[in-house]
């Protein structure tokens, strides 16, 4: 039997005009549903002068303002005081049909809640199966779930989805502890491990002491990281690949019908469910929708196309991505998104928007002549900073003086060509920049006393 590339080829392969038409049809249905079920959404939709039944194109929802994390907290506070539950006035399903609740811990005040109806679990299971199938997992494979099981959206809901796909789930969770996870991995030999990139690094660091062997001895072939950025960073990915001897993928999403995951080309993450969730490009300065062309850098706004409980409509979490719409050489369908950070990380150099992660990625392309470690040194607080921007970049071991000069020139040229700002390059010997254990730091605030 020929193995298929996709879990659900008919639905995952829809592209171009056919996809846009399908999305517009679903928007029509979804917005009618939102308007009929939630006073909050009715106000937003009517206030923008949008009539759901008249939607024929994706642009028709542009007049509706984006929904932000801050507003998400507000609608939760409103429902708590008015309706006696914390799930938000955007909840569309009757409370007795909400059978699942997940949450992220809020940095202040209420946690952010995610709600699921039975239908939503079916959608979520479909998205999980599409994601893991693309990574090469097949029914009968063992998968260790190392994400937090307690309330985390990538925790408990994934157990059901993976079982439905026919995978053997070992749900140890991040709560299981480092030693226990390593011990169970040694015993059960999972083909894949799902966890945050920082936990994956920590496991690799502790394994010799806790199980008397490197994590490479566990036989893990596939490591899918998510829950925080990290695996999209070429230096972190390279470290994890070497430590585990595994293919390392970066994933993002986990509710509302959307998930995106990287492929073997590692040029952004493919959306696996464009029929279930819409991703729009938003200008970070004006908040207006912009056309998502190949290479567009913008904030992402998400809209559920088939979600019942607490669906999202133009939800903007402030994550900035490079939108990659050209076909990927891996052959998988789905536009790709390369996360560059949050809108608040952005620097402005002579009117040009500079995302630290984008600088890091341009530098990393010159490996192996560079180690991938780099810092942007700031002498004053951003976002507006003076030109030229000082970059400290590590070169590899054993580079001659002349090679260093050529490398420096090439780095400067590439950054000017690709990112449109002028840097000052300071090349440093390998190992000069401190490696923080679980997080890559790209900026040195010299103005605040950092060195
Ligand atoms: Zn690809």
Annotation keywords:
451 residues, alpha/beta, GMP Synthetase, Chain A, domain 3, 13-stranded mixed β-sheet, four-stranded mixed β-sheet, 11 helices, 22 strands, 31% helix, binds zinc ion
Give an overview in words.
By secondary structure, the chain is α/β, with parallel strands linked by helices. 43% of the residues are buried. The radius of gyration is 23 Å and the shape is globular. The chain has 11 helices and 22 strands. Strands 1, 4, 5, 6, 7, 8, 9, 10, 11, 12, 13, 14 and 15 form a 13-stranded mixed beta sheet that branches. The protein has a domain at 347-448: ANL, C-terminal domain (GMP Synthetase, Chain A, domain 3, 2-Layer Sandwich), CATH 3.30.300. Helix 11 links the parallel strand 20 and strand 21 (423-428). The structure holds zinc ion (ZN). Zinc ion binds next to loops.
Shape: globular
Strand fraction:
15-25%
Bound molecules: zinc ion
Q: Total number of β-strand segments?
A: 22
**What's the end-to-end separation, in Å?**
59 Å
How does the helix and strand content classify structurally?
alpha/beta
Number of helices: 11
List the uncertain runs. Answer: none
**Average pLDDT rating:** 93
Q: Largest sheet at a glance? A: 13 strands, mixed
CATH T-level fold name of the domain at 347-448: GMP Synthetase, Chain A, domain 3
CATH class of the domain at 347-448: Alpha Beta
Query: What is the name of the CATH architecture of the domain at 347-448?
Result: 2-Layer Sandwich
CATH H-level homologous superfamily name of the domain at 347-448: ANL, C-terminal domain
Helix content: 25-40%
Radius of gyration: 23 Å
């Amino acid at each position: 039997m020929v193995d298929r590339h996709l879990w659900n080829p008919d639905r995952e392969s829809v592209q171009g005009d056919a996809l846009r038409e399908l999305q517009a049809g679903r928007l029509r249905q979804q917005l009618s549903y939102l308007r009929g079920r939630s006073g909050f959404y009715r106000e937003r939709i009517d206030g923008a002068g949008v009539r759901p039944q008249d939607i024929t194109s994706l642009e028709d929802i542009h007049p509706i303002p984006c929904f932000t994390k801050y507003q998400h907290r507000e609608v939760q506070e409103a429902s708590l005081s008015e309706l006696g539950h914390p799930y938000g006035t955007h909840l569309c399903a009757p409370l007795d049909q909400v059978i699942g609740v997940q949450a992220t811990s809020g940095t202040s005040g209420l946690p952010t809640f995610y709600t699921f109806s039975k239908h939503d679990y079916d959608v979520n299971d479909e998205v999980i199966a599409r994601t893991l199938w693309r990574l090469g997992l097949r029914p009968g494979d063992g998968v260790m779930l190392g994400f937090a099981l307690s309330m985390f959206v990538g925790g408990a809901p994934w157990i059901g989805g993976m079982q439905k796909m026919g995978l053997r789930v070992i749900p140890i969770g991040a709560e299981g502890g480092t030693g226990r996870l390593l011990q169970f991995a040694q015993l059960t030999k999972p083909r894949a491990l799902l966890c945050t990139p920082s936990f994956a690094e920590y496991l690799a660091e502790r394994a010799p002491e806790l199980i008397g062997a490197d994590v490479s001895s566990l036989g893990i072939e596939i490591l899918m990281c998510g829950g925080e950025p990290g695996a999209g960073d070429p230096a972190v990915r390279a470290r994890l690949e070497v430590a585990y001897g595994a293919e390392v993928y970066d994933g993002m999403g986990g509710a509302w019908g959307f998930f995106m995951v990287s492929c073997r080309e590692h040029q952004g993450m493919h959306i696996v469910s464009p029929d279930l969730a819409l991703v729009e490009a938003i200008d970070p300065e004006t908040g207006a929708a912009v056309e998502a062309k190949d290479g567009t850098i913008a904030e992402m706004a998400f809209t559920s196309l088939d979600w019942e409980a607490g669906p999202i409509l133009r939800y903007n979490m402030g994550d900035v991505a490079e939108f990659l719409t050209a076909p990927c050489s891996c052959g998988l369908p789905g536009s790709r998104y390369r996360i560059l950070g949050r809108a608040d990380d952005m620097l402005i150099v002579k009117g040009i928007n500079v995302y630290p992660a984008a600088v890091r990625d341009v530098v990393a392309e010159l490996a192996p002549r560079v180690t991938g470690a780099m810092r942007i040194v700031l002498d004053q607080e951003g976002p507006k900073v003076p030109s030229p921007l000082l970059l400290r970049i590590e070169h590899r071991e054993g580079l001659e003086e002349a090679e260093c000069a050529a490398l420096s020139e090439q780095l400067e040229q590439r950054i000017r060509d690709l990112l449109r700002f002028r840097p000052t390059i300071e090349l440093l010997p390998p190992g000069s920049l401190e490696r923080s254990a679980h997080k890559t730091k790209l900026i040195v605030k010299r103005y605040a006393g950092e060195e």
